[in-house]
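Page 37, top half.
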Amino acid sequence: MKRPVALGLAAVVSFGMALPLARAAEPPATAAQATENTEKKESTLPEGAQRCVNLSQIRSTRVLDAQTILFEMGGKKTLANRLPRKCPGLAFEKRFAYKTSLNQLCNTDVITVITNIGAGAGCGLGYFEPWVAPEQIGGKPGDGKLEPVAPPPK
C-alpha cells in the first residue's frame, strides 16, 4: 500500500526538478526582444505615475485600506500606492515594513504587514500615483478614496 504513494511522490519530485532544467534549455531572449518587452511594460505606466520613490523623500505613510497606502513626500506632495491585490491584515493593522538594498522603494518591492505577534502577509507594491485630498477637490474631509470626486457646483 505504501509503495504506490512513494512512487507518486517520486514522480512529483522528479517533475519539479525537471521543470527548471526545461526552462534553462529555452534560448535566451535577444537584445531586441528584451527592449521590446521593456517598452511594452513602460507603456502600461499610468499617466503621472512613477515606478519608484526615493526613501529620503518619504516623510510618512498612511494606510487607507487593504489595497491603498498614501506616501507623504517632501515638498507637500502625496503619492498613493494602489497594491495590485488586497493585502491581508493591512487594513486592520495599518502598519507595514519594507526592506530594500537600494535608496528607492519601487513597484517591484514587497511590503510586510506588521502584527502584534510579528510579521504578517507579504504584498507587492503598485505604482506611485499623485494623490490629492478629497476636501481639496470638493469631497468630504477624511474621505480618502482614490476615485475622482466631482468639484462642487458653481
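Page 37, bottom half:
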Amino acid sequence: MGLPDGHDNACDRRVQASHADDVEMLLARIEHLMRTQGRAELADLGVTRDQFHALLALCGSELTMGEISERLGVTCSTITDLVDRMERAGLAERVRDAADRRVVRVRITDGGKAVLGRVRDRRRKHLGRVLAAMTQAEQSALRDLLARVYSLLSSQPGP
C-alpha cells in the first residue's frame, strides 16, 4: 500500500527545511566564534576588524576611497574615518595618483603589511589547529563544500 500522492513531497520539504535551518544555525554559530576569537587576536595586535579588512583589500593594490568603500560594503564617510585612523596608526597612507593629481589613493604601509602578516599567521595557526583534528579528505571536502555554498549563494538574487 503506497502513500497518498504528495505525502513524499511534503516529507522531503520538511527534511529540506530542517537541513536549511540546521545549516543556517551552524553557519551563524561558526561566524560568531570566528568573529569573537578573531576580535581578540586583532585587539592584541592593536588593529580593529574593519582595519584588518581594509588591509586585506589594500594588500597588493592602491585603491581610491570609493573602491575601498565598495569592497568593504560601507559608506565613503566611514572609510574616510577608517583611513584617518589607519594613517595615524601607521598602517596605511594616502597618495596622489601620478596620472591624475585629483585622485587620491590609499596604500598599505610597511607597518600595515607587518600587522597583516602577524594577523594572518595567528589566524592560520588557530584554524590550522582546528583543521588538524580532521583528515585531509575531510579538510578538502569542507573547503569544496564551503566554496560550493558560497558560489550558489552569490549567484542567487537577494530575498
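Margin note: The longest strand covers residues 92-96.
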